[in-house]
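User: Fold both of these, please.

Assistant: Here is the first one.
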Amino acid sequence: MIQSLRDLQQCQGATFSSEGVPITFGNAAGLEAVETGVALFDRSHWGVLQMSGGDRLRFIHNQTTNTFTQRQPGEGCDTVFVTSTARTIDLTTVYLTDEALLILTSPGQDQRLMNWMDRYIFPADQVSLTNLTEDMAVFSLVGPGSAAVLKSLGVEVETDWPMAHHRSVNLDGVSLRLAVGSGLALVGYTLLMPTKDAASVWRLLTTAGVTPAGESLWQQLRVQQGRPAPERELTEDYNPLEAGLWDAISFDKGCYIGQETIARLNTYQGVKQQLWGIQLSGAVDPGEVIFAGTEKVGLLTSVVEAPGGLRGLGYIRTKAGGAGLAVNIGAAKGVVVDVPYLARGYLTTEHLTV
């Protein structure tokens, strides 16, 4: 069924990666749409897992960093899967429905998380996992015009809803789930629907004036915003506090996998490195060491071209400094900058000076 979507996108000018992900739509209007209108991103290569059973809230509460046992259907939140030593596995968004949880994983992480959770499901647990990645399409509307476009299509949205709150809506005869949040620190909505309906929904939105945008722009925005990604910033080399994911962590809940380490790092202010944005003067590859003067202070994890020059993400030692720190990476110079997606918990400017 996804082929009909790909055929439509190709007719709209899309070029694709070897995995079939639309990379670009051959226009320069995507960034302007994100800033002043609305852009449409296909996130169907992200994973969708379904967790059902009477113990599902207790189970995910005990498996991840955020709190779930008191949440109600229609609510949702970001949460992080971590190892027993609080090393990051994946950042996910979980949507609660009346009968199940829908877990939106990072690209390529769906089966990994299925296998991870399966290790902790015991025979007495009323928990069942299903991988819906091949059966579900995921789109994100990004930009200040998102709500107006949905309204023009007959869907009223609650502008005061918290992030990840969601409900089932009907869009021109297609039943889908509409959630607050674009996946970035930018206004927007995420839509989840059966794959068989993906092409008709994509056509409806683009006909309504939404600008289709590809993975190259998503990656540019991801780095500019500071959202960490698997195999870049989300690896077992780092914990979610270092990754700036404080908003996806509850410090008041009971025991969960990795909780002891995270609580200790918070209590004793033990975060030794942090993820930052970096404005770069020239080309440099991810994996390069970051220097402040002659001192090694961190590691570059992502680089993209953006308006105003190259931008990167990298982990930098807390004691070395934060925003405004001058750094050298390979042959390039850089300046550390804050990014809107990340939070820093207890850390203040007092902790970010040498």
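And the second sequence with its predicted structure:
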Amino acid sequence: MQVKELSLQHIIKPAIKPSKKTPVLFMLHGYGSNEEDLFSFAAELPDDVFIISVRAPYAMQPYGNAWYAINFDAEKGKWSDDEQAKESRDKISDFITEACDAYNLDSENVTLLGFSQGTILSYAVSLSYPEKVKRVIALSGYINENILVNSYQNNDFKNLSFYISHGSVDQVIPIDWAAKAPKFLKELNIKNTYEEFPIGHGVSPQNFYSLKKWLETNS
């Protein structure tokens, strides 16, 4: 199947046995990476799922892409561009609908798999627009409440569930930030599984095996 020209650049792995109700998994990479990064997981994921790995919209120099800028200031220190992140949140939300229509996919069976900045956006999209997402695999990220839509607490989350994992010695995003997610989600009555692995900012084979098992049992 040919990759279609849509609002966000992407690559695909079609389902082996497509149907009128083909589930879809969107991959959202981390800061400074691209759509090829997480796509290495695709061959090991269930083959009845259509996989779309998306390139973040903001090109970096000399290479790589970002969902939003991370600035380094002598006075303010490191800070994220939350307004740009909100724009990406809505770009992803619109792209989900666009891609499901373009590839004839089941818009009621959508999974987001994010890493780092891609996880932060996965949280933002799913908590802001839970009607668009059924499952989230949140790797090495955290919930940034500043980029959620207003009154997100009033959303209907009954069909949403999360698999969350983080490296216990992550040198990029502190484990404490990630560990707040289960309580946050529980207060919203959202089903979630949380695991820690003795690694840094990455995904170990054990971590991948665990997320794959979760995906298979929560399909």
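Residues 1 and 14 are 7 Å apart (CA to CA).
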